Amino acid sequence: AQSVAQPEDQVNVAEGNPLTVKCTYSVSGNPYLFWYVQYPNRGLQFLLKYITGDNLVKGSYGFEAEFNKSQTSFHLKKPSALVSDSALYFCAVRKSGGGGATNKLIFGTGTLLAVQP
Amino acid sequence: DTAVSQTPKYLVTQMGNDKSIKCEQNLGHDTMYWYKQDSKKFLKIMFSYNNKELIINETVPNRFSPKSPDKAHLNLHINSLELGDSAVYFCASSPIGGGLGKTTEAFFGQGTRLTVV
Predict the structure, then answer these.
(1) Cβ <8 Å between B98 and A32
(2) Does residue A117 belong to the interface with chain B, where contact is any CB pair within 8 Å?
(3) A96 touches chain B (CB under 8 A)
(4) Cβ <8 Å between B90 and A109
(5) CATH class belonging to B4-97+107-116
(6) What residue segments make up the domains of chain B, in order of their start?
(7) Mean per-residue pLDDT pooled into runs of 10, chain B (117 residues)
(8) A67 — contact with chain B (CB < 8 Å)?
(9) How far is CA B44 from CA A67, B48, B90, in A?
(10) Where are the beta strands (DSSP E) in A1-110?
């Protein structure tokens, strides 16, 4: 069965400092991995994804994530945090390819990122 | 030109009532989902439809009945509402399969905040 773990409920970082939000996953076969962000009282916005190829993927708002197959991780990173980055971040996984039940997108429990000015 | 739209945005109702939430996507995706986000912000998949066919039903009480009149619409009807049904319900859509260079991510609606009193 697919699963995603986000070990930190909250990450605190000072503005201008680098940030990392951790994610590990479990899926049989090759994974498609995603990061989404949720601002208060809003829906989920797609940030970036890993499908195949280069392990470092870049996404919206200066975020990037590194896929590490041996550690089954997909940590979200940003070199310099902004106060406006403060939000709830979700990692998600689904199986690669196909349709049917393989399209099931499973989310982690979310990590609240708080960037202090 | 909202990609995934849900109505209503807020729904307050009494226990025992029956209510529906509507969802429409204009992205041409084949797959649509309903997710429930509880008070702790956990996101749990409820249902998934491919081209109007139910493919995922995550042991949701049968008081919840999704209906997909066509592949652009997935409505959620809830009978005999209970206090524990209070949550934010998100509709989403994604293409089937995918791969490098293809769209694989799911797009989410803004959510419907259901409050049962």
Answers:
(1) yes
(2) no
(3) yes
(4) no
(5) mainly beta
(6) 4-97+107-116
(7) 90 97 94 93 90 82 93 95 96 73 80 97
(8) no
(9) 24, 12, 10
(10) 3-5, 10-14, 19-21, 24-26, 31-38, 44-50, 56-58, 64-68, 73-78, 87-95, 106-107
